[in-house]
Amino acid sequence: MARLHTCSVQVLISLSLLTVFASLGAAEEARWTFDDTAADWVASNGTWEVQEGVYKQTTRWGEAMHALVDSEPWTDHGLSAKVRIEAGHWAGIVFRAQNEFEYYVYLLCPKENKSELWRHRHSTAFKDGFEGRDEIEHNIKPLGLTLTKQEWFTLSVQVEGDRIAVAINGIEQGVFTDSTYPAGTIGVWTWDTQASFDDVTVTDETTPVTPVEPHGKLAISWAGLKRQ
Questions:
Q1: Is 200 helix (H, G, I), strand (E, B) or coil?
Q2: pLDDT tens digit sequence for 6-36
Q3: Cut 0.85: pTM above it
Q4: Residues 6+ apart with CB under 8 A from 224
Q5: Could you tell me which residues are beta bridge partners of residue 194?
């Protein structure tokens, strides 16, 4: 009986350790599938609607039309989303957004069969301020695929410190560095383009940091952000 008791204790300890290691290794995830609504999303400009299970920009013309998640900022994280361009030439994903004017965007341009990475900033040179931006890389030729309209592509970014890795359909397209925006929220984006977005997913090994100045935005927890 003593031997059986010892074995039982060892099994319980092993199971407990497995549970601990599994918990430590699991990344937090927030996902939006737009099956019903675009909860947590706020449109900065353009016309954004949920239609047939996707999040759509329905306006054809407009510069830097984007919608952002109203949340605490993420620091190091991964972001992915399915993107389909229906009319126009430019659509992509926003990350480390400080506000509606300051953010990074990784975008597709099927017209020229390339992707691009930009840093946006507020600019008083334009009447609404949305068009101000600086190039990080405007001519990333696709590796392992051809970009077309009316087709879904999965765009993704991985940010760690000042390192920005970008990918399409799981194929890395390049790694770049920029330290302007160390943390921020995420979103979707078009420029003179009608496009659809789906399965927007953020993964993070750490808890989102608390903003110094929330500017009236809600502090959304990971549990509240999770979408099945």
A1: strand
A2: 444 343 434 433 333 333 345 688 999 999 8
A3: no
A4: none
A5: 87
